[in-house]
Amino acid sequence: MTLSAAARGAIETALGRRVTRATALHGGCVAEVWRIALDDGEELVAKLGGGLALEAFMLDWLKRNSEAPVPELRVARDDLLIMEFIVHDDGGLDDDAERDLAAIVAGLHGLSGEAFGFARDTAIGGLPQPNPPTRDWRRFFADHRLRFMAHQAGAARRLPARMVSRLESLCARLDRWIDADSAPRLVHGDLWHGNILARQGRIVGLLDPALYFADPEVELAFMTLFGSVGERFFASYGEIRPIAPGFFEARRDLYNLYPLLVHVRLFGGGYVTQVERTLQRFGV
Predict the structure, then answer these.
(1) Residue 164 and residue 80: Cα distance in Å, rounded?
(2) What values do phi and psi take at 167, rounded to 5?
(3) Cα angle: 192, vertex 197, 203; to 5 degrees
(4) Is-contact 263 150, C-beta < 8 A?
(5) Are 195 and 206 in contact (CB under 8 A)?
(6) Residues marked as catalytic
(7) How many C-alpha atoms does 17 have within 13 Å on its Cβ side?
């Protein structure tokens, strides 16, 4: 894959510098992502696509309101986002990095909001993520996460109508598993291993946030979905913010319905089967 002349020109015009090398990086669902070297040897990351102003907003919000390590922004437009390149190790997280990540995530979860949701709608995987301020967590999770994404997936013909109906039934029964007294806490919203950069046992970057205020368990659940973290993370996190009984036994799978529905909307396929298994487990 080669950086197009038009993209190269846009980057060089925005920076006032010449690009001498461009290497394609994994870009997720919404953008081309390039590691670029400039004529003075500096290396940056350039993303080209649409909706990038929202990503820039969320990165800037984290930079201003938290201790989470996020890349410095150089150019922030809706069609072009240029940021620092963070040197990091390849592969998974070692025990030291998991401990460091636990402290960082617990710090994010220590930031309180006035309501569940956010000051504006955000996005996950390029998909809309509605965040109307809501006082009741069960209602927020049911209406603006499960129901919303199920109907998105259904409208895209990725999720059968009968499964949308079963998810509606599950939403009506959430009080069986989710307490009403949760407090709104900040979550990154998309903490899978591709968005977590580590170097020599330290976390050096968190990428591609999908911010909102939630019950923090929704984030902890997602971090288990693709094996991004292990026992060391949860042991260290639990020393800072104890995890309530029943999370690993039930609520984790319930909360992971949301990212599974996101993946159904994006990709369909085997993710539909995973949703089906979860619905069966919860008796709908």
Answers:
(1) 36
(2) -65, -35
(3) 110
(4) no
(5) yes
(6) 190
(7) 16
List phi, psi (to 5°) of 157: 60, 30
Q: Are 79 and 49 in contact (CB under 8 A)?
A: yes
- Which secondary-structure segment (H or E) carries 138? helix 137-141
Strand partners, 124: 127
Residue 99's CB is within 10 A of a number of other CB atoms, namely: 20
DSSP code of 117? B
Give the separation between CA 217 and CA 209, rounded to whole angstroms: 16
For 150, phi then psi, to 5°, come to -60, -45
Cβ–Cβ < 8 Å for 33, 46? yes
Q: Are strands 80-84 and 122-124 parallel, antiparallel or unpaired?
A: unpaired
Give the global pTM.
Answer: 0.96
Is the CB of residue 228 less than 8 Å from the CB of residue 196?
Answer: yes
As averages over each run of 10 residues, the pLDDT of the chain (284 residues) reads: 94 97 81 95 96 96 97 97 96 95 98 97 96 97 98 98 98 93 95 96 98 98 95 98 96 98 96 97 95
**How far is 42 from 19, CA to CA, in rounded Å?**
10
φ/ψ (deg, to 5) at 218: -65, -30
**Which domains does the chain possess?**
5-84 (3.30.200.20), 95-281 (3.90.1200.10)
**What CA–CA distances, in Å, run from 43 to 82, 92, 203?**
10, 23, 20
CA distance 174 to 168: 10
3-state helix, strand, coil in the chain (%, to 5): 45, 20, 35
